Automatic annotation (TrEMBL):
Domain (DDE-1) ranges: 6-154
InterPro entries: CenT-Element_Derived, DDE_SF_endonuclease_dom
GO CC terms, sorted: nucleus
UniProt organism field: Parnassius apollo
GO molecular function: DNA binding
Name of the featured protein: (apollo) hypothetical protein
Origin: domain of life: Eukaryota
Pfam families documented for this protein: DDE_1 (PF03184)
Transmembrane segments: none
Length: 310
């Protein structure tokens, strides 16, 4: 995690398992390793623990802004939202599929970190032939890569890059609103040119314009690579598109005669995550209401199970 002023928090990593053993050996000072028995992905419990043990102790005085993606572990826990609000932390989630444009870490830091980490792994394998990299070597390799990637220049450049993206989007929207007239395509431009210029210049184009369809089909494709709009129009008249011609194959005829019944599958579409202020009172109330409904639904399920057992 980086800050706009160019400073970094020590890295926090997640590994699958229960016991840390020596996995933390060699990590940079202040780093933290979280263990998860099911998988190495973030969960709501791990995110709350990260806030309490890693982020808040290093948070400067006053209100701070924490940028997050729209993952459910960052948005749904009422305990986490209330804890962040009580500790002057404003949580702001980004819309779906925008973190690679709006998140400073994705813009500059992560790519540099991956490059340096892979470089350290290749160097380690070269110095230790016949051995494999295990989780016991992870801390030392990450420490060396982190020292090169977590620079003040990368942190500041990440925030500058996200601001430049927003400015570019505003400029493009202004240009699009100013130029509302449709741009003519190539064929319309060639129609406006005088007949002397629009005439075919090469011998190939003259042959095509005066040739029959049989002659056109015999010519190689490379001869028409530089064909003008007049030649393209001539060929389109001689050869209409496939949609105008009957396109009946034996397979399609059989499907029309005896169509195979298809099973209708309903696909649930996930709602797109919209950028929102997660620590707002309305969002916290909404999450509390949904959790209450979830508890009621769970109680009904348990009662039904007990009735069935009876």
């Amino acid at each position: 995690m980086d800050m706009a002023e160019g400073t970094f928090l020590p890295p926090a990593c997640i590994m699958k398992g229960k016991n840390k053993n020596e996995f933390e050996d060699g990590m940079s000072p202040g780093s933290k390793l979280f263990m998860s028995p099911k998988s190495a992905y973030i969960t709501s419990d791990l995110f709350i623990e990260w806030l309490k043990t890693h982020f808040v102790p290093r948070k400067p005085a006053g209100r701070v802004l924490l940028l997050l993606d729209g993952h459910s572990t960052h948005c749904n826990s009422v305990e986490m939202l209330e804890y962040a609000k009580d500790n002057d932390i404003t949580l702001l989630s980004m819309p779906s599929h925008t973190s690679h444009y709006l998140q400073p870490l994705d813009r500059t830091v992560f790519k540099s970190l991956k490059t340096h980490f892979y470089e350290q792994c290749r160097l380690w394998l070269k110095q230790n032939p016949g051995r494999r990299i295990t989780r016991l070597s992870f801390g030392r390799l990450l420490n060396k890569a982190w020292g090169k990637a977590a620079s003040a220049e990368n942190a500041i450049a990440g925030f500058k890059a996200t601001v430049m993206v927003e400015e570019q989007e505003e400029n493009t929207s202004n240009i699009a609103s100013a130029n509302l007239q449709p741009v003519p395509n190539t064929f319309e431009v060639r129609q406006d040119i005088s007949p002397a210029i629009a005439e075919p210049k090469s011998s190939v184009e003259r042959i095509v314009l005066n040739a029959s369809p049989e002659m056109i089909t015999r010519r190689p494709k490379k001869l028409f690579a530089t064909a003008s709009a007049a030649v393209i129009k001539k060929m389109s008249e001689q050869f209409p598109p496939r949609s105008d011609l009957p396109d009946l194959t034996p397979t399609r005829i059989l499907k029309q005669m005896s169509p195979v019944p298809q099973k209708i599958i309903e696909v649930r579409k996930r709602a797109k995550q919209v950028g929102m202020l997660l620590t707002s009172e309305n969002h916290i109330k909404t999450r509390k209401f949904k959790e209450a409904l979830k508890k009621i639904g769970n109680k009904k399920k348990t009662l039904k199970r007990k009735e069935k057992l009876r």
